[in-house]
Each structure stands twice: as structure tokens, then as C-alpha cells.
């Protein structure tokens, strides 16, 4: 009966001012166009009837009553939005009365609230009870536009982004040194708003291209505040609260931007696990699975320990969920670097070894996960030692398995890809079924034959290479001898030139080294040919030159 409290407030103030109820009605009608119109239609109507549908609380009623009686109204960020909504509803504008309440409240709102991010958040938080009126009056749109402008200039108004780290320590949601340094610069958090306000704000920020890293971080912190900290288990949660939290996680999934490394993989797994526990829609769960699959190479073993919708012991690991995530990873991996494939293969092997210790893990579940691990290792040139190790752990923790069941498990293992060390261990492993040991021994024998054949081939190849090296060495020695002979000849020739020994030795019947060299090069003309009397040219008679007889 909020309208009765409001009327009681008016009557109490009227009594203190020695005013009658009629005078109170006239006073209110002088400020409110709505009350004036109602009284004009029915002058005998009482205040309880006139004010039965006013959307406001008692504190806001008090402010309006004080204004109507000429008292000062103490406006603040916390009461300004409800005050504007009520004065708008009552028609307390300038068209009805000068210096009316609505214009004063709007002026305070524009000058005090809109310029400040913190004041906007506080004002919106105070509008939860009059949310519909806040939307209708345009107050929410005014706040939203102011917030978009401020977030565009400084997206840190949404909070610091959560850095994706490759460290082993899970410090993804921990503030860094810079954030701790400026921790005193406190500001109102957007995540304190209700989902009805938070959803349109984030949606509009996405449309205005606010950096998705800041939006994603804000969405995760909202889930952490409104779901993770409030979720104490499905058994103790009321139906209303469970439905409310399911609505929150489904809405946040729609708002969460798509993209790799916007949030650490561990946090995405946390949100997926929450969606599963709250029995969110398949669209919501698939959305988280797709985001996880795109960056599965950043996941940790503990992330894969996802509880399914049922808590039955035979279903303690959501195998189909893991299968879908793996499918997303392989269908979206577009890097030329194969390190991502190797990382996921190692992740699956470690996960298989981890769950192999679970005493309640059913054999069918283990085989399915082992097959996924083998499929993840395809194309990575990895051996099967990790799978063998997980199988050995499973046999050790489940000693009650029959020989036939063990053989069924070992069908997953590729003995050809086991290292010699693993084969040696398996050959002596009493936990393995006999058929598996025989296969291991057979593979060990094949490996030994291949090793011997490779050794023989290497020995034959070594002998051939040594023979070729000897032949090359002999040829080089021959060439070295020839080079030495040429060097000796060159030294002798140089010595003859230096001592002036190059001369004609025709009369002595001797042939010099120089002549010998010319003969070798086919150059037989010598300087003596130009001095031979028998070979002189005859003089031409017309030139007066006599010929030698």
C-alpha cells in the first residue's frame, strides 16, 4: 500500500502546517498536472484513489511532499532517478508550474550524474525498483550514451582485461603490479548492476566496438559475482534462484564476444561447467564449447574434468563434451605450426593418465577417452608411450578386470609406435594380458631385425665409403706430385731468365730450355730468322735499292 503511505506523508505534513486535506489536494494540484486533471474530473475523489498507481517508494514520496510544501529538497545521485520518474509521472513540469520539480531534478541529473562514470553507475543502481519508468523517461538512454562515450575514451572503465598467461600458475584473474599501484583510484563496477541493465549496456558497447578484451573480462567478472559466488550446490538452491542464475549464464554467453584468447581457457571451462550444472540450453553450452575448442592448446588437465548434467558415478566425465571440443579444435586450427597439435596430444595423454587413477571409472569410458588420445596423436609423429602408461595405471588401479576386458582395452594401443624402452617394460609387465605381451615381444623382435639390418647396411655403406675415400686420396697424391714437378720446372725457368741464359745456341748445336718451351707451344720462329742473310728481302729496282746477289 505505497499510495497510502504517500498520502499519510502528505497529511502528516499538512497537519504540521495546519492545513486541511482539501488544502493539501489543492496544493498538490498546483504542482502536479496529473492530480489537477484527476480532481477536475472528480472533485470529490480522495487522495487514496488519486494516487493508487504511483510507481515510487516512500522516500521519494517524502521528497515530493516536501517540495509541494515549499521545503528544500535534498537531491543526491541515489535518489535523483526515482525523483525524476515520479515528478514526470505526476506532470510536475514547467508547462504546469514555473520552477517545478521536474526541471530542477533534470538539471541536477545532467550536471552531477552524467559527467561521472561512478555517479552514473550509482544512479542506475538506484533505479532498479523503477526500471520501467527509467526506460520510458529516457533516463537510461542518457546514461547509456554517456557511458559509451566514456568507455570509448577509456575502456578501463569496464575494468582491466584478463591477460591470457602461459604460466603454470593460475593467476589469470589476479591484478598485476600496475593495477595494484592504482588500486586507490577506485571506481564503480559495471557488474554491480542487475542483468536487466547490464545486458543492454554491454550489447550497445559491442555495437560501438569497445575492445572485446575489456568486454569479455567484464562478462566473466559478472558471472563470478552473480553465479559462481552464489552457487552453493544444486541441492540447496531454490527453483527461483536456479532459474535466475540459468538466465544469467545464458545471457552472458550471448554477450560474450567470439575470438581466441579473449579469456583464458580455464575461465571458459569454468563458465561451461556452470552452464552444465545449471542445465542451461544446448545453445549456451555449445557456445562455450566452441570458444574453448578454438584455444584448446591452452587448456590444462584439470580443465577437462567437467562434470556432466548427471552426477551418477558411471558418468563422472562428460566424454561427448570433450569429443565435441576436440572436433572444434581440429576444424578451426589454421596455423602452419604443428606445435598446437602436439600440445593437445600431450594434454589428452596427461588427462587419460589422470583419470586412470579413478577407481570408479568404467571401462567403456576409459576406452573412449583412450581412443580420443590416440586420434589426437595422429600426424604428430608421437609414440604410444603415454597411452601405454595410462593403460598400465588403469590396470594397476583396477586389478579386478578380467583377461578379456584387459585385451579389449589393449586394442586401443598401437604397439608399432611404442619405443624400445616401453616395449621392454611391457614385455615384463605382469598386469598386461598374455596376448598383449605376445604382441609386444613380436614387435620387439621386428625392431631388433630392423636394427640388425640397419647396422649391416651401415657397415656395408661404411666399407664402400672408405674405399671411395682411398681412391680420392690416391688421386690427390698424384695431382700433388704433378704440381710439384711443374713448380720445379718453373723454378728452373725462372733461374735461367735471371742469369741471362736465354741465347742462341745454334752454333753449339745445343737447344735451350726456352726453345724447348717454344717448341712445345708450337712457336718455332726465333730471333735468328731475322738475321739470316739468305732470308733477306730483295730491293725493288725502282727504288734504287740493290739486291744482294
From TrEMBL:
Domain annotation NPH3: ranges: 184-447
Q: Which InterPro entries match?
A: NPH3/RPT2-like (IPR043454), NPH3_dom (IPR027356)
Sorted alphabetically, which keywords does the UniProt record give? Coiled coil, Ubl conjugation pathway
One Pfam family, short name: NPH3
Give start-end ranges for the coiled-coil region(s).
Answer: 457-496
Kindly indicate whether the keyword Coiled coil belongs to this entry.
Answer: yes
Family the entry assigns: Belongs to the NPH3 family.
Please report the name of this protein according to its UniProt entry: NPH3 domain-containing protein
